[in-house]
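Project standup — Tuesday

K.O.: blocked on the structure for the chain from last sprint. Re-posting the sequence here as requested.
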Amino acid sequence: METNDKKNPTTEYVDLEEYYDENADKKYEDKYKPKSLYDKYTKNKNFFVYVCLIFAVCLALLFGPFFRITEISITGNSKLSREEILKASNLIIGSNIIKADVNGASKNIALLPFVDTVSVKRESPSKISITIKECTQVAVVKYLGNYVTVSSEGKILEINPKKDGKKLPELLNVKLGKTDVGSQIVFADEKQKDVVKQYLKSLDSTNVLTNIKTIDFSNLNDIKFVLDNDILVKMGHADKISYKFAYLEKIYVELKGQSGGVLDLTNPDKAARYKASEK
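H.V.: unblocked you, prediction finished:
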C-alpha cells in the first residue's frame, strides 16, 4: 500500500481588519474633494502677502538709508584731480550704491585724456573704489605753433602753446594730421608711423628719458638724438631700438662731464664710438 507523504496545503486566513486604515477614506476625500472658496482665498492671500514682503524689502534696499554711498576712494591719480574723476564718473555721495552705474562710471573715466586703464568696484555696502593707471608722458611734438604731449601708446594727452618746462624729448620733423586730445596721434606721413611708435614705447622704459632734448626723424635711416649735454647720438636705422637704448643708458653714465661730440650707436653689434668735439 503506497503512502502519500504529501501534506495537504494549509489555508491561511488574513485578517484584513488589521490593515484597514479607518482614516484612509477621509484622507482620500480631503485630497480630492474640490477646494472651497475659503481655501482658495487663503492661499491667494498668503501668496499676496509674500509678494508684498519681497516688494517692501526691495524698496527698502533701493530707497532706504541702508546702502547709501558714504565713501568713494580714488587711487593711482597724480595728473588728474579727484574732482575731475568724480565729475566724469557721475557717482555721488549719498546715492544708493545698488543703483550706482559702475560700468558707466568706468567708461566715462576712461575717456579722460590721462587715463590709461581704470577699474570701478563696489567694495562694501557703502564704499566704491576707483583705481586708475595714468598714461606716461614721453614726448612732445610741435604742431601749428602748439606743443602736443603724447604718451608711450601714442595718445594725445595735452595741447599747449608752450612747453611749460617739461623735460621731455621733442620729436623733430614728425608730420602730424588731425590732433584731438584723448585720441591717438594721426601721422600725415604713414612711413613715420611705425618707427615713431616704436621709439615712444622705448622712451617709456628708458632711464635717460629726461636727458634727451630732441629726436630727429627727418631721415628714418639716420635717426639722431641730442642729449642735455649736447652730445649728438646717431641711432641709425629703426632696428634693435631697445638694445640701443640700453647701450645709451650705460654709456651716458660713463660720459658724465663730457659736453658735445658724437656718440655712434648705429651698429649695436660693435662697440659704441664716442668722438669728442673739437675745441
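K.O.: great, moving the ticket to review. The mean pLDDT is 83. Helices lie at 24-32, 37-63, 82-89, 102-110, 190-205, 241-254.
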